[in-house]
Amino acid sequence: MTGAADFTRLGQKALEVAGRVGVPEQGTAGEPRAIESPAASPASPPAPRVPLRIGLVLAGGGAKGAYELGVLDYMAEMGAQVSAIAGTSIGALNGAVLASEDSFFQGVRRLAGFWERFSTRMGVAPSEDRGLPLDAAGVAVESTARQLARLGPRLLALKRRLSLLEELVDQAVDPERIRTGRPLWVAAYPLMDREAVPERLRYGVEIARWLGGARATIIRLNDLPAPQIREAVLASAALPFVFPTRVIDGCVYLDGGLGRGDRTPVRAFAEEEHCDVLVVLHLHPDARVAPGAATGLVRIDIRPSLPIIPPGPLGPLTGLMSFSPERVGALRALGYRDAAARFGEIERVLTRRVALTGAESAMLSALRRLRGDRGDPPPR
Amino acid sequence: MTGPLNLSEVARGVPLVDDRLLLEVLNDLHTADDLVRTTAREGFFARLLAQVTGRARRRDLAVAGGLVGAQRGTLVWLTGLTERLAVTDLVVAEVTDEVGRIRAEVNRLDTRLRSAEQGIRDLALILAELAEQTGRGLAEHDERLRKVEARLAVDDAVRRWRHPRPDPGLGRLPRAVLLAREVAAGPAGEFAASGHSGYVEHDLVERMLQDPPAPWYDGVRSVAGLLADAARQLPGDEHRIMLAELLGEGVHKELTGERGPLSSALSTVALATGVEGVDPEAAAKAALRGAVGSGARYVAASLSAEELLRQIVAEQFAEAAARRARLRARESA
């Protein structure tokens, strides 16, 4: 039976309740809810990313083409996938070797092997540049006198190693893969029809044509028969007075770099391949795409950050013909560094833009949830 | 003047500047930078040649074009950013409004909560008072009930002593002591120990005086003589030993506690006359001498019947209370 003591205890409990009412409990009300970071609460599923069509344009420049190999090394490491390739002169050769593999990564490895073989078998002594000062790019600096002394031997070396070049091209370029693979365009300079011009006037006419601004022709190799693909590649790299002309489909061609105007065959991509982004590898610090050639295309122009032509009046010729392994290695390393800087900057900028988009999506989603909680009609 | 920006429409209709514009701005900047850097590196003859061939002019145009393109792209980007900032501002405004509404709601609920708390507090106070008054009432009720139980216990004990009467050979003095001892050990003794000893002892003495109707003795008598008579009147030595044992003789003092002078003397006399064959008169005098002391142990040499009964009842109730206290102490330990 409930006794007086029990009622006393009940009374004390009731007094405790009266004294406790109004005292908030610890750790409940008053604590702010942690604000969710945008990353913690994804607002909506990200839009599916449509793969970009990336076009690669490789400029011409003889031995300076080793710079392009360095840039391609970095792109292959990044996992880039190239949809179409265009090149002039050494760029056409680089492009043809790239296009001879199904994957871009394997193509760059193939191209690296080609350059190693070509530079080591050009007859340049390994110690040729020993003792010479190095420029900022790590390339041995030759004086004008040395360049003049080496000009003749270099010309002869190129002329004598035509068969080596053809042999290496046969090893490195796979015409069948090119026919069935990604689009490959090369620029070659067409000479006039021999039948139309008398023999003794031919050189003068050609010089007049060249001075008049004759342009190179852009040839799509995928449409050519296999033997013609080889010829077209060699035609684009046929330095005048060094290598012989090449005949493609009845027309005689020389090095595509002879053409005036746009020496990088950007027009092909602008009109034919519908690429989203063009990566244009130039071989001169002030090289540029001709105005209007790339209208409507997004370009990433990569130029050497340092001069890669030796100083002096013979610098351009030396830069064209000097295939020493040390020079090739230095240019390749410079190309890699420049590509890392350029693409790294692009990645940082685009990453920040994506972060901004994500933050804005989170903000709008939170607003929609807030309106939904309040019972407001959803925004139309 | 255009109307205010609508958050939903702006958020839906304005796409953020895409990667394309940023790539174009970057490329234009790099083109201008590369061309300017190349121009800075040129030597005298190279500059002269560039001027003569027109390359310098084309390069300058390309630099200007790159810078103009970069600035145009930046302007487009900034315009888009401004529109996005407007969206953000609208969102902030809407969130601020919502915070304001929530704050007002919280204030309103806070007021109601305080009112509810006050109500609960008042209710708790009322409940406390109710519990106190109910407890007090129950305590009084409980007391009255215990008083009734004590009365009934006395009635029961006296009735049992009366019907049937115990062996008349026991004598009046032993019977009185045993009756008082039984009542003190029961519910009446417990009730008396809670502060009502005066009432219960008085009631028992009155009932003992009423039964039998004839007074025990008139006037006063010597206590020693009464003890001697009590021992002498016992039927046999077994009765004397029984009486002594009933009064706690032979039990360890830790169990019996301090016995009153009269019960102690009576048990001593009974044992002496029963076991040792001592003369009852001498045994009574000796026992009384040994048991009587000062204070609570004082017993007058002669007492009236009523005084004797009161002393006997008081002793037994005191012994019972002491036993209860010892037992409670032992249980709580």
TrEMBL record, chain A:
Pfam families: Patatin. A motif (DGA/G) lies at residues 255-257. Residues 21-46 are annotated as: Disordered. Keywords: Hydrolase, Lipid degradation, Lipid metabolism. A motif (GXGXXG) lies at residues 60-65. Residues 56-270 form the PNPLA domain. This is Patatin-like phospholipase family protein. It comes from Actinacidiphila acididurans.
Automatic annotation (TrEMBL), chain B:
Pfam families: YjcZ. It comes from the Bacteria. This is Uncharacterized protein. InterPro entries: YjcZ.
